[in-house]
Amino acid sequence: EKSYLRDAGLPVTPFRDVPDLATLETALAEFGTPAVLKTADWGYDGKGQTLLRNPGDAGTAWKKLGGGRAVLEAFIDFECELSVVAARGLNREVVTYGPMLNTHAHHILDVSIAPAPLDERILREAQDIARAVLEKMDVVGVMCVEFFLTKAGKLLINETAPRPHNSGHLTIDAHVTCQFEQQVRAVCGLPLGSNRQHRPAAMANLLGDLWEPTPPNWSAACAFEEVKLHLYGKREARIGRKMGHLTVLADSAAAAEERVRAARKALRT
């Protein structure tokens, strides 16, 4: 994925393909530390990656990964993380949702807000890059492009997800056409729906941690004005497992974020 995007002229985080320990040690000498070693397959939510703080960590990190293909990425001192969910139809039409600003906790997406409170130039550029990714990869359906925004104001693609994405869950309540409907429209050859956003919104993930030691207080969260509760029907709550999310619409993204965090906190009462 990263090689394809780089060769297509798109801005990606600096990386090296790592097939063995010797290559890892060479790449570390080039990038320096800290750096991040990631498995090339099936990694998500921080799983399958290790932060290397010094060159001496190489052997332990490689052993922890269990061999196989891996990628070493230079550590990015970023200002923030954002994502663009986009859809592309059979007729090559592309629709992008405005960038979502994302915050993470323990490597798992925690809160997304839209519209992202960033400079218009950054917002336009992120959507332009996302559109280019879908076009160059000839995607049909929904894809999310995740970015780092560096402290120098440069956008770098961190990774892509060829499907509806966690950060796009707020589109269910906040947009005329949600990302899931766009997926169906795209693969069925239907015209893509409007990406118009009704109001600023924020989404907070609900992890299995909230079920410990007792089930969440749903009434307390739903008492907040304009809170929408979504549960995924998973039978078992586990620490770190995504069980659902809350979405809040408000007059500003900042107000929506404040309210959704407060509603989630109330689940513990």
Kindly describe this structure.
This protein is an alpha+beta fold. β5 (78-88) and β6 (94-96) form a beta hairpin. The longest helix is centred in the middle third of the chain and has 17 residues, at 120-136. Helices cover 28% and strands 30% of the residues. It has 2 domains: 2-74, ATP-grasp fold, A domain (Dna Ligase, domain 1); 78-266, 2-Layer Sandwich (D-amino Acid Aminotransferase, Chain A, domain 1). It is globular, with a radius of gyration of 19 Å.
Set down the secondary structure blueprint.
Elements: H1 2-7, E1 15-18, H2 21-31, E2 35-39, E3 49-52, H3 58-65, E4 70-74, E5 78-88, E6 94-96, E7 100-105, E8 108-114, H4 120-136, E9 141-150, E10 155-161, H5 171-174, H6 179-187, E11 201-207, H7 218-222, E12 227-231, E13 242-249, H8 253-266
Keywords:
269 residues, alpha+beta, Dna Ligase, domain 1, D-amino Acid Aminotransferase, Chain A, domain 1, 2 domains, nine-stranded antiparallel sheet, four-stranded antiparallel sheet, 8 helices, 13 strands, 28% helix, globular
